[in-house]
Design goal:
Blueprint lengths: L1 E3 L2 H9 L6 E10 L20 E3 L5 E6 L1 H8 L15 E4 L7 E3 L10 H4 L4 H12 L4 H6 L1 H6 L1 E2 L7 E2 L3 E8 L1 E10 L19 H9 L5 E12 L3 E8 H5 L6 H17 L5 E3 L2 E5 L6 E5 L5 E5 L2 H15 L5 E4 L2 H12 L1
Parallel strand pairs: 1-16, 5-17
Antiparallel strand pairs: 2-12, 2-14, 2-15, 3-4, 4-9, 5-6, 7-8, 9-12, 10-11, 13-14, 15-16
Length: about 350
């Protein structure tokens, strides 16, 4: 049995309590160099290590791209010409140059980001979070709807959390870690032309200083060399209908349909293959992606994904809900200083 993506089906997803609990994408990826080629997963701050977990059977699973990273890759999609009219375009002007701007769609913490608290939007954002906490997501959806789609935590003000409607991760299975070594050779023998003294006569801190500026030979051994995946490289995208149907407002039906439309656009757009240096992943053409509608009873029905239908639904839902006009606001350094002082107090 296959479920076609129709407007009626999508409305049921958004507003019928008995509708599907989730839509799920299972997609296999490959490095552009081909199956079995090395690629570089994410490293994380502090120790700059890969996130590789070892399962009970010894299988090693690497986190290639995290939930947060995937969300931050998808959200700027709504800056593109085909989709920008679906959401309010809010730009924050900063610095001395008139052209220096950042979009709220590029702010890592979305409506809860520090950059928002440093503008005239701060009181409005604060109130929107309080409204969400009271059960009215309408104001937040009119101000920053993608904050509801990709999730937001106003950790530094109201403490309100909104769960993600769209969740995406990439993991690689049965991986082996690689290392790499390199050798830097300066263009000239700077000791021979008496720019520096003989390296062996230098103190360690002197060697470090000259080496950092490119005047000495610098070997590098045992650095990160990426991984090879003997198992699948799998991307999983889930649209959470339960979380969606818990959102309400004065016109809850229009709100939920609107947010589902945005979620469909984000989840259905092809992944940008360039994740980081040494990591370009493309769909495995021999194993096409599979969309599934998941019922409350655990039943799974294959879903025929239709991007055109998703876009039509999103545009119609946005028109019904009403998209607020874009705004440009100024970053205020005084607000930033007051924000920090208030936190200290």
């Amino acid at each position: 049995m296959t479920q076609k993506m129709t407007a009626e089906f999508l409305e049921a997803c958004a507003n019928d309590p008995k509708g599907p609990v989730a839509l799920h994408l299972h997609q296999l990826l490959l490095p552009v160099e081909g199956r079995g080629a090395p690629f570089f997963p994410a490293t994380f701050a502090m120790d700059e290590k890969y996130n590789i977990d070892v399962l009970s059977d010894g299988t090693k699973v690497a986190l290639v791209d995290s939930v947060g990273s995937q969300a931050n890759r998808m959200e700027p999609l709504f800056l593109e010409a085909d989709y920008r009219d679906l959401v309010p375009q809010i730009d924050i002007r900063y610095g001395k140059e008139a052209h220096q701007k950042v979009s709220i769609l590029e702010a890592g913490h979305r409506l809860g980001d520090a950059v928002i608290r440093c503008t005239e939007l701060a009181p409005e954002a604060h109130q929107a979070f309080q409204d969400v906490n009271r059960g009215d997501a309408g104001p937040a959806a009119r101000l920053a709807p993608t904050s509801l789609v990709f999730g937001v935590w106003d950790s530094r003000d109201t403490g309100v959390k909104v769960p993600r409607l769209v969740q995406s991760t990439i993991r690689a299975w049965d991986v082996s870690r690689l290392t790499r070594s390199a050798q830097f050779n300066p263009a000239l023998d700077y000791a021979a032309i008496e720019v520096i003294e003989d390296e062996d006569k230098m103190k360690k801190d002197e060697q470090k200083s000259w080496a950092e500026r490119g005047y000495l030979h610098v070997p590098s051994t045992g650095d990160h060399g990426g991984i090879i995946a003997a198992g699948p490289i799998r991307r999983d995208v889930t649209i959470n209908m339960v979380a969606l149907r818990r959102l309400n407002s004065k016109d809850g039906k229009a709100l939920r349909s609107y947010l589902l439309g945005l979620a469909l656009i984000a989840a259905g757009e092809p992944l940008d293959p360039f994740l980081r240096q040494g990591c370009m992943l493309v769909p495995d053409s021999e194993n096409p992606a599979v969309w599934t509608s998941v019922g409350r009873d655990g039943s799974r029905t294959a879903l025929t994904w239709d991007s055109a239908t998703a876009l039509t639904f999103a545009k119609a839902a946005a028109k019904t809900f009403g998209v607020d006009k874009g705004r440009e606001v100024a970053f205020d350094a005084k607000r930033a200083k007051a924000d920090v002082k208030g936190k200290k107090k």
